[in-house]
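On to my pick:
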Amino acid sequence: MQTKAPIGTTARTGEICPESGVWEVVGYPSTTAPIAKGNRMPPYQGQAVTWRLIRHA
């Protein structure tokens, strides 16, 4: 059985998403987005940001 990345895992814009789930932008303004494992982490409002995993898919 594969282990999931723990809640609180972070990834930067442009990196490969390590875990499917709901991700939140660290900082302000913040937003949440569902991102699938293997996709590239997106920018937010045209900026490179750090995303934090808040809920598994």
Residues 10-56 form one domain.
